[in-house]
Specification:
alpha/beta, about 300 residues, 5-stranded mixed sheet
Length: about 300
């Protein structure tokens, strides 16, 4: 009940003020902004979030600042102000890079990895709208590699080993690693929106998909159909159309290298309907699906 939730938040914001309650107050203001965004009051949400970002920068609460910046960027994005959204995300990525350069704790590095997921997803969506999808894809891969290397460097088992920095590949270099019959498919799923990158030796396509919550619901309804425990096909057909629509653009592909994101790890991808075929055969009938952890 968003109306009642908003009323309770308004009362709390009135009474919780002052330095001792800054974090709790910011949490309430951020929740209020989420409420406003859910009721399509994006402009008011932007005003609240801009104020809270300034407050959180002073007390430097990593988690809350990340959430506030992500929500602020998303509010700008939903309002069609993509350049303002990108400025917010660029600032937050600088914050995360600062944390990365100044931590020697593997738990903190893991925490940063969680924060980074939603930030990079929002950035990818913004850059897609700005016609810079390639940049969003490459930034995601670079920062995720940086965190993996950081965790390796500070982990006890690597303390005496020399950890070498991996070469950051360009899109052209990634494509050159693929043969003519191989497709690299990467999904990035955020809370409310997702995006996928379809990369072959000579093509690069970006495709928007639903966010985590709607996908979880559809996957739950589809799993029995995909595994043969249910004779229906309505939900699995819908899931196939959502996730694999661009596959029709890659008629000669025989191998799909798949990098998934939660909750897509639960999907038997090879059982999805092949959009290249008119007879509704599964992808497995014409292409092998290989789940891989990373591009390199």
């Amino acid at each position: 009940d968003l109306t009642r939730a908003g009323q309770h938040i308004d009362h709390a914001v009135k009474y919780i003020k002052g330095p001792p309650f800054q974090r709790l107050s910011s949490q309430i203001h951020i929740t209020r902004a989420e409420f406003l965004m859910a009721t399509d009051s994006d402009a008011e949400a932007v005003e609240i979030l801009q104020k809270e970002v300034k407050t959180l920068e002073k007390i430097w609460n990593t988690r809350l600042l990340n959430k506030a910046n992500n929500l602020l960027a998303r509010a700008h994005y939903l309002g069609g102000n993509y350049h303002a959204a990108q400025q917010v995300i660029d600032k937050e990525l600088k914050n995360i890079n600062f944390y990365l350069q100044n931590t020697a704790n593997t738990k903190i590095a893991g925490h940063l990895q969680g924060l980074l997921k939603e930030t990079l997803n929002i950035q990818a969506l913004i850059l897609h709208e700005l016609g810079r999808s390639e940049q969003g894809f490459l930034t995601r891969e670079r920062l995720e590699d940086d965190i993996i290397e950081l965790k390796a460097e500070i982990d006890f088992s690597y303390q005496r080993a020399q950890v070498s920095k991996s070469h950051q590949l360009s899109l052209k270099e990634i494509q050159q690693q693929l043969n003519a019959e191989t497709l690299l498919l990467v999904y990035s799923i955020g809370e409310t929106d997702g995006i996928s990158w379809w990369i072959s030796r000579d093509r690069f396509i970006t495709h928007k998909v639903p966010g985590e919550k709607p996908l979880k619901k559809l996957i739950s309804l589809s799993r029995d159909e995909l595994t043969g425990r249910d004779r229906g096909y309505q939900h699995s057909k819908q899931l196939s159309q959502i996730l694999t629509k661009p596959l029709a653009e890659f008629s000669d592909i025989k191998t799909i290298q798949l990098i998934t994101d939660e909750p897509l790890n639960l999907v038997p991808f090879s059982s999805l309907q092949d959009g290249r075929k008119n007879n509704a055969l599964p992808i497995a009938a014409s292409s092998s699906v290989q789940r891989v952890r990373s591009i390199q």
